[in-house]
Amino acid sequence: MEIINLFPGSFASNCYVLISQKHAAIVDPSANADKILSVIEQKGAIPDMILLTHGHFDHIMSLDDLRDKSGVPAYIHRDDAELPEDAQKNAFHYFFHTERTYRRPERELQDGDTIPLGEEIIRVIHTPGHTRGSVCYQCGNLLLTGDTLFDGGYGRYDLYGGNGEVLFQTLHGMKRLGQTLTIYPGHGASANLSDALHALHI
Ligand SMILES: [Zn+2]
Ligand SMILES: [Zn+2]
Q: What are the tens digits of pLDDT across the range 127-176?
């Protein structure tokens, strides 16, 4: 599995492209759609799907444009499925006092779902707290953590659907995922999972 980070997406978000056997998944389409598609094309790959770690606007800025240009479906946990189409819930209104919405994702995920990409399997891990439907995507040693866990921090829990108690339960539960995973967060640098948790005294 190859992972490419198209940082900076909008609002300093990371935008990842996963490629296996010429099949690509875009995780959190915050970068420009043409830029994402040209990187995939340069690799000789074709886009298969868009995977969302959660429904906040800063991770989905090119979601509609990318779907229009590529025709691929978007996946989101079912508990966040209503966020993109609601400017209050996707937090755009909170920051900019104006509306920005996106079409509802085509596919809804739940914990434990597996998604094939090329020769590999992406596993969906429900990690609520930052939002109700936040997920991490695990593939081999990669763990895409969205706004649940950063290198040196964790996501805020005061926006729609956020819950601090639930987030800390989630972070404690992530210890069980193993020592060797590398996190690829929605913002900031990558890190070893256990180092990132340890830094938070978890
Ligand atoms: Zn967020
Ligand atoms: Zn974010």
A: 999 999 999 999 999 999 999 999 999 999 999 999 999 999 999 999 99
Distance 35 CA to ligand 1 centre (A): 22
CB 122 within 8 A of CB 88: no
DSSP state of 14: -
Give the Cα-Cα-Cα angle 111, 182, 123 (nearest 5 degrees): 20
CB 90 within 8 A of CB 107: no
* DSSP annotation string for 90-155: TSHHHHHSS----PPPSEEE-TT-EEEETTEEEEEEE--SSSTT-EEEEETTEEEEETTEETTEE-
Q: Which residues surround the ion ligand 2 when the cut-off is CB under 5 Å?
A: 58, 147, 186
Fold of 2-199: Metallo-beta-lactamase; Chain A (3.60.15)
Q: Residue 173 is encoded by which pair of tokens? A: 């539960």
